[in-house]
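Obj.: predict assembly geometry.
Materials: sequence records (below).
Method: joint structure prediction, all chains together.
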Amino acid sequence: MASTEEQAVAVTTNNDHLVQSEDPEHPANLIPELCRKFYNWGWVTGTGGGTSIRHGDHIFIAPSGVQKELIKSENIFVLQWPTKKYPAEERSYIRRPLKLNPSACTPLFLTAFENGAGCCIHTHSQWAVLVTLLVEREKGPDACFEISTIEQIKGIPRGKGKGMLGYYDTLSIPIIENTAFEENLTSGLEAAMKKYPDTYAVLVRRHGIYVWGDNVAKAKTQCESLDYLFQLAVEMHKLGLPWVK
Amino acid sequence: MASTEEQAVAVTTNNDHLVQSEDPEHPANLIPELCRKFYNWGWVTGTGGGTSIRHGDHIFIAPSGVQKELIKSENIFVLQWPTKKYPAEERSYIRRPLKLNPSACTPLFLTAFENGAGCCIHTHSQWAVLVTLLVEREKGPDACFEISTIEQIKGIPRGKGKGMLGYYDTLSIPIIENTAFEENLTSGLEAAMKKYPDTYAVLVRRHGIYVWGDNVAKAKTQCESLDYLFQLAVEMHKLGLPWVK
Amino acid sequence: MASTEEQAVAVTTNNDHLVQSEDPEHPANLIPELCRKFYNWGWVTGTGGGTSIRHGDHIFIAPSGVQKELIKSENIFVLQWPTKKYPAEERSYIRRPLKLNPSACTPLFLTAFENGAGCCIHTHSQWAVLVTLLVEREKGPDACFEISTIEQIKGIPRGKGKGMLGYYDTLSIPIIENTAFEENLTSGLEAAMKKYPDTYAVLVRRHGIYVWGDNVAKAKTQCESLDYLFQLAVEMHKLGLPWVK
Amino acid sequence: MASTEEQAVAVTTNNDHLVQSEDPEHPANLIPELCRKFYNWGWVTGTGGGTSIRHGDHIFIAPSGVQKELIKSENIFVLQWPTKKYPAEERSYIRRPLKLNPSACTPLFLTAFENGAGCCIHTHSQWAVLVTLLVEREKGPDACFEISTIEQIKGIPRGKGKGMLGYYDTLSIPIIENTAFEENLTSGLEAAMKKYPDTYAVLVRRHGIYVWGDNVAKAKTQCESLDYLFQLAVEMHKLGLPWVK
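Observations (raw structure tokens):
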């Protein structure tokens, strides 16, 4: 959702050609398609959530406060990479759609890109929110979400260049506390990434999740695998089944 | 669903041009598209629910007792705005499709428009119905639905011209009792709007919800955010997690 | 699902023109469209369930043992109305697609048509199955499913020519015991219809539901309203909320 | 998901014509369509699961580690039948798409084909995973999943050439323990098939299910019927309703 910080950023240019491509694999075509899928899974209803893709030295970002299933290529922001995270006014936008604001998640996406990601997805998945609440109650505010010996864990990397987790491994996703303003999550996200350098995702209590990956396919399928595990974990909890064997 | 009151209203005219437009953003095109989406979310199955849009001095209303996913532009009623709420016979219909009746929610939609709304949505969402029952049992018949410190709350306005709710705010949605005839909900809705002048939604016990917004996008995304919160609240209740921190 | 009884019925003719029409409202076009919707709701997966429409003196029936979301107009059986229920060999088929068998629900559909229905729908909805189990445990094998004071009840007729149920009415759906062969349900269905002459639906324990209506739109929307109520009832039971106020 | 074993297999040839057909019933067209459906049911998100079809002396296999809803005909592997299960390097691939790996489930699919199947489906359905956990806790590690007197059971064969299960029969699906590497499940699958020669499916604890059938339609509808029963069983368990009458 839009913040006043973002609204202060000036329109600098309108390089429409940056978001015009016949290639379905172009980021300006992938972002609308991904957002439609995420909407249908219930991850980004009510304009929640967002998606960003790095393509060479360009960052493509979905706009803020827009119905995610209706995003068009022409609604997409483009940043020159690298760029400043703060202050927002000095970010190097090379395309800004009129009347729209870039996602308030922008500094969080940039944090993932600094970390080598090629794509970052933010959802408000209810399963993600519920596991953050269950972990807090069962294990305290500093605990991670942990689950083990479920096949789908193999869909999550063990860390950069370390291959995928194995069936007998325990998947561990850090949880950070939510903040009043989304951009203020950035320092918490950075701290979690530093503390858990192998993670490809950070849960935000009472809010949702940030998932990234080396490229679009990896970010999306890792996001799907995690959501599968969160949903399974909630159902397991209802049935009195422990998450870690 | 149709009421005898509505059935008494005479066909006055058939201004077909009012519902013919190539513009996908025209109300006569938006209402069918919204109803298809709402049907797929399970909000308006069995002909339940409805949608109305104010466009300048015209009110567009989905018909009553019709399969919501099959509504066509030509099925849409148009009222001259402003118009009488009661008696229904004296409402200024400037387009009435033959053989159809306007939504029994019409006076409720008109109440929202008198309050400045640009679009009003009525759903029979099961999550909405369940929270009305849980609130009644846990907090009594006069209590509102309340939830706090969940990110999605930021999708709901604090009140007209007051910006959006913050993460630490408590969202409060009034609940009115259902009546035998839908149009008789109007006085309850008006009373709730007077008592809670900042609300953009009213729950109806054992029935569903009315949500409105300054325009179509806001009404729809507020409706999605509320439904997300109701579903989350039901799941939180099952898991023994409190709604207000 | 197919039974040996059905397989014995001989192919008598192949009046292809009976299922060829450009009119989307023609039964041969409506049955495939309805079955696709029912598949997406999870009501007829695994070839379960079926649909039949009476159109003048013709009965259109979906085939047995076929993937319901893939049914084509050319797969549809046509019976001359009236026809015999038993023995199946003497039913007046005026169109039989080669290699297919008519739905094993045929005698049950015919029972609904004898009762004045224009369309009959059979689903294996899990919510329907669960309420039959909950009613049996909570109220005994002879009890009906009953629910009251829920708005969606108004989507169900009070009886033939008696208008719709009101909000304060109690909806009552009889439940019959399942049998080893689907066609043997017929006498139980007939008995339930005789005992509850106003009902438009009969639940079958551990199996699903038969819903009918004066025409296709009514049968479909009544089926949706009932399924909404069954799902709500299961969730209410989980939350300890009584079905009848 | 891909394994190192599979990655060692060399590209041998590229018979593109084997996966090019205008016939929607051709395996190279059916696999993408099935995978899209399975993705929408949530069975193969995060690149989990897979599908394989035997067509004459050709085996068509979906690739590994690919977004299942995006599979195209050109992504499909073709094996000459019969072929070796082990070592993977000696399997007779007559078509290998560049840059892709065949499903790690390949030896499991081949086991089903050796057993006479025409199609084999592997899903990570959460309902399947949950029943494996409930059976283990309630009945021990050696117990099968069992359910009786539910109509949908009639969608599952009693065994090869033995017709379908009846309503009063008890459906029994063996459960094998998961292994660190998917291909190592093969011996467990073979043992389960030997011990339960009539079964058309094997559950894998904490992983999912393998379902096969004499042809594509049977494998798919049997997979749907089983998933229906697993979901129903989980809900029955939540409601305290026993699986076997």
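Conclusions so far: Chain A has one domain: 4-238.
To do: check interface contacts against the pulldown list.
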